[in-house]
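Q: Sequence in, structure out?
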Amino acid sequence: MTMSSTGGRRRPPTIHDVAREAGVSRGTVSRVLNGGHYVSPAAREAVDAAIRKTGYVVNRHARSLITGRSDSIGFLLTEPQERFFEDPNFNVLLSGCTQALAAHDIPLLLMLAGTKDERRRITRYITAGHVDGVLLVSSHSGDRVAEELREAGVPLVQCGKPMGPGSKVSYVAADDRDGARDMVRHLLSLGRRRIGVVSGPLDTPGGVDRLAGYKEVLTEAGVEIDERLVVSGDYSRASGEAGTERLLAQAPDMDALFVASDLMAQGALAALRRAGRRVPEDVSVGGFDDSVAATEASPALTTIRQPYDRISNEMVRLLLAQIGGEDPAAVILPTELVKRDST
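A: Exactly. Output:
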């Protein structure tokens, strides 16, 4: 902090103070702050050292007036607010994206838009230029948020594959289909043949691909697909419980259960316990995500691990690249089977 000329009050350091400390021009400091283009390594190092010494903090509002950017990113969740607090996956993604952006000194704004009206308001806010780009989580088919933002020229990266055909939206996804295949193969290896499934919502890419993986492996193994063993949920604990109750009523000889999220699997375990079915002795249960819900479950869940740290980092990397002028891109990351006590 620097002494002001008005009675000893300390004022925040300015770009002029940084330039004087570094022994460079104000323009050089400005170029360093805006990406370091056309600046020698020695000058950049001097400016960085001066910033640390003076404690200079960028005036984001002033810079945004010059660059036309807000210097912030939106984290948009198109789910009801209660889902954000119930499902641990959203918090893990939010935390990972926040940390990845912090390395670039960029704040992340959480936006919840679970209804059509909320999505309409948030879309207006985003397209007005209040954020430089959007990390979109949990997109459903029929939801036009992604396409509307893309058509408005807003840089966007989606978590999960787009549902619409021919979509040009950037995305980062775990290999949902392959993860489901690994889980069902594992259940088959235990000698289970009456394997039920509580899929995710079938208007989401994860819901569709995990169900497809389940059916593919059973078909490859020569096990007939029995639709009485197939129900869908919405990734909530309550839907996993209700779905399992339906399966037990429709197919009481079920000896294994693949549940397409750990949170739904917690509900499935409650329904099985209430029905007097032992896990894993009577029914082997597998989840998906490897979230905190898997380790808190009783018994602890065998599950499919999604690499949430890599998903967050890749989403941020692709978004910053888009903001910098690069074309949309896609990344699909491998999953991993994690064996615990429920199988």
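Residues 3-7 have pLDDT under 50 and may be disordered.
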